[in-house]
Design a protein that fits this description.
This protein has 268 residues and is α/β, with parallel strands linked by helices. The protein is 34% helix and 27% strand. The protein has helices at residues 51-58, 81-86, 104-108, 127-140, 157-170, 187-202, 214-220, 243-251, 254-265, and strands at residues 11-22, 25-36, 40-44, 66-71, 74-75, 89-92, 115-118, 122-125, 175-179, 206-211, 223-228, 231-237.
Length: 268
């Protein structure tokens, strides 16, 4: 098992020795992460590992306190998430930023609605065009919506996840950052989301898949970065690390085995 990182030239996006501080709190310390073009890079770690801070740094919510953020090999300084979106870096958070009472089509185009002229001079949303495009784009991702005007609250959690991802792809995402997309889903719905990640990679889109579930990450991932208490434990390709080794590193390895031995030897 060996720690490996792609070169900067291979990377569409990279963090080089990035740290993020909140006062005296060290949220991230000297983290290096490089995302190759057209790969699925899994970011793994338990609760409190620093995944959320890293996501928000990549998405332009937080600026690094130290280190360099590069896109296409050039340093960037994002003032807001819109700056990241303008460069094709889209983040799908767990809450999905969807409105349950609005239709599938309206959620798909929220903030970017296609327009048509009413009475020749008033701009209104072109609902028919929005419905057609939303239905077609979701069908490309394997989601068949009978009525794109139905409230999105009638869709399953997995379908909503897929809609949020399909929306990002439609609006030109080159990099997809997925925040625990399978955390609240059942087995079948999780499988559908993983299939969608595979389709995104096949389109040449680079994906950062954030999760604490190795069983979801390992089958779909090309490379893996493990976080623990804000620090990177290394980056590994699938050729250099097994699923069992990833599980062992996340579980604490020798520390966990010592605790089990102590519990087995304790008298009750």
């Amino acid at each position: 098992m060996s720690d490996t990182q792609p070169s900067r030239d291979d990377s569409i996006l990279a963090l080089e020795n990035v740290s993020r501080y909140f006062g005296n709190v060290i949220a991230l310390k000297d983290v290096t992460l490089r995302l190759k073009r057209g790969e699925v890079h899994c970011l793994l770690g338990d609760n409190g590992a620093g995944k959320s801070t890293l996501i928000k740094t990549l998405a332009g919510v937080h600026a690094p306190s130290e280190g360099t953020y590069l896109v296409d090999g050039k340093p960037v300084h994002f003032g807001s998430p819109k700056d990241a979106l303008d460069l094709g870096i889209a983040t799908v958070y767990q809450d999905l930023a969807l409105v349950p009472l609005l239709s599938v089509a309206r959620n798909f185009f929220m903030g970017r609605e296609p327009q048509r002229k009413l009475f020749g001079f008033v701009n209104v949303m072109d609902i028919e065009t929005a419905a057609r495009i939303a239905r077609d784009k979701l069908a490309e991702m394997g989601i068949n919506v009978r009525d794109p005007n139905q409230p999105i609250g009638t869709m399953s959690g997995g379908e909503r996840q897929c809609l949020a991802i399909a929306r990002a792809i439609h609006f030109g995402a080159r990099v997809l950052i997925l925040d625990e997309p399978t955390a609240a889903l059942g087995v079948k719905q999780s499988f559908n989301v993983l299939k969608l990640i595979h389709k995104a990679r096949a389109k040449g889109i680079s994906v950062i898949f954030i999760t604490h579930n190795v069983h979801h990450a390992y089958p779909i991932g090309d490379s893996f970065t493990l976080l623990n208490r804000g620090r990177s434990m290394g980056t590994y390709t699938k050729e250099t690390i097994t699923k069992e080794q990833v599980l062992d590193m996340m579980a604490g390895g020798a520390e966990m085995q010592k605790m089990i031995s102590e519990l087995e030897g304790a008298t009750i």
